[in-house]
C-alpha cells in the first residue's frame, strides 16, 4: 500500500473495505464519493452529488452503478450493498486493486475477466463519467450496468413513497425527471433497456453509528447492456444535470485527459517538488469551488457536508491558494467575502451552498484581514488592496464602535462577544456546548494583529493609520494583565462575568492561546511566548494536532463518536484538531529557534500525516481525531483547513519557502 494504492488484503472483507473512503470534486461544490470497495455507508455517498442551479443545496442523483458480467450460467456481480442482516452482492470478493490517483480506479478479476473501472468528474460541470476497460478470455459474455438513482438532499434519506420518476428512454440512455422537480440524464455507448425497479432498505453503516437515519430506497430505471468481445472492450457511462446524450467514448477519453492535465498543471504551477508537499497539494483542489450565486471563488470547508464558511475559508486560503500559486482564485475568494461584508462582519457561512449569508462569527472578519495580508505578501497586488481597503476600514470601525451579536471593543481596548461566536461553536438545540461569551484570548490576539496589519498595509497605500496604531497600543497595554495566568504559566482562555457580575477568568488549558504566539504581530515577551508553547506542547499536542482541552479538565472527552449529542459534547472538549498544528509549528519554531533539530522535530510531526493520507479519506486529512490514543479520525473525511494548514506549515515553516 502506497500512494493511494490498495491490494486485495484491504479489499477482501466488507468490514475492512468500508474503513477507507474517497472523494473527488467538480469545482462547483458537487462531488463523487464512496468507499474503496464501492459500498455506500453514508447518505453523502454517491457517484453524482450535484449542485443544480435551481437547487438550494446539493442533491444526490446517481447513487451507484451496479455492474454484472454473465456468461453461460455464470454471473459475476461487482456491486456491494448492505441490507438488514445481509450484504448483497459482495463484489469486493472480485476486487484485486484500488488506486486513488489520478482518479479512483478499481481492478476486478472475476473468472476469466479483468475489469478496470475509472471515475472522474468534468470540472465546472455537474457531470460524472465512468470508464470501463474490460478484458475477456471468453466469447459470448454480456455486461449489464444498473444505475441506482435518487433525487434528494444529500443530508437526508428518501423512500419510494416519497420519490417518483418519469423517464424518457433512448437507445443509449435515459432522461429522468423526479417528483422533487429535478432532471438529469444518464448516457452510455451501451444499449439502454428501461425496466423500473425499486431497491428497498439499503443501509448506511456510518449513519447508523452516528445515530442518524440509515435506511433508504433507490430507484433503478433500467439497465445498460453490451456484449464483450474476446480481448478488450471499452465502455462508458455518463451522468449529468446536462444533456449528455451526444457523448461518445472518444469524447469521454478527451475529457478524462483534460481533467488529468488540469490537475497535473496545478502541481507544476506550484513549483513544489518535495513528495509529501505534493501529496498534500493534490488534496487541496476539491475545496476550491465557484460560488453559484456570486460567480466568485470560494472554499468548501469540508467533505461531505460543509458549505463555504468564512472563518475556515480565510484560515485555509494561504495553504489552499497561495502555496499552490492560485492567486487569481485567491483574489476572487477575498473579493467574494468582501462584497458580503455587513456592519464589519464577513459571513460565517453561506447555508445550503448559495443561501443567504449568516454572520454569527467574531473572528472571521479578523481572519479576513490576516488572509488579505498573506495574499499581498505573495502577490504585491496593490490594485486589489486598494479595491478592498474600505472593507478593512469597515471591519475595524465596527469592531471599535460595536456591531451585531454583542461584538465590540470595551474601554480596555479588548474585544468582547456574545455566545457561540468563536470557532468553538458546537451547539445542541439551544445549548451552546462551549459558549465562550466574553473576551476570548485568540480573538484579542487576532484583534491586535489585525490592527497592526491594517497599519502596515495602510501605510503602503498612503492612508492615515494613526488611529490603528493608537488602538493597537491600547490592546497591547491591557492584554497581558487581562489574560496572563501565572499559576499555569500560560493564558486564561476566556474572561467573562458570571450571573452575579463577578469577573471570571477561565483557566482551562485550550489551544486558542497558541495564536498569541503564531500570528504576525504579537504582544507578549519572548519568555512568556515560549511558556505558552511549552504548555500547549505538554498538555495538548498529539501526533495529529492539538487537543481542544487538556486531559485533566473535568469536561475532557477523549473520544469523538456516537450520536450527535455525544459527538458535539466532545467536539471542543478534548477532540484533536489538525489545523491547529499550523499555528503550533510556527509558534514552536519562533520560540525555540530554527535550528536543524527543531525543524526536524516539526517536520516529523507534519510528515506523520503521510500514513493518515491512506487511512480514512484517501488523499485527504480528516476534520478531527480522538483526544485519546490511538487518536482515531472522525468528522469529515477531508477538511479544508486540516489540509491547508499542514501544507502551509510544511512549505513555509519547515521547508522555508516563503514569499
TrEMBL record:
Highest rank taxon of the organism: Archaea
Every Glycogen debranching enzyme C-terminal domain range: 283-648
Pfam families per UniProt: GDE_C (PF06202), GDE_N (PF12439)
Residue span, Glycogen debranching enzyme bacterial and archaeal type N-terminal domain: 20-233
Gene Ontology molecular function: 4-alpha-glucanotransferase activity; amylo-alpha-1,6-glucosidase activity
Entries under NCBIfam families matching the protein: gde_arch
Name of protein: Glycogen debranching protein
Organism classification: Archaea, Methanobacteriati, Methanobacteriota, Stenosarchaea group, Methanomicrobia
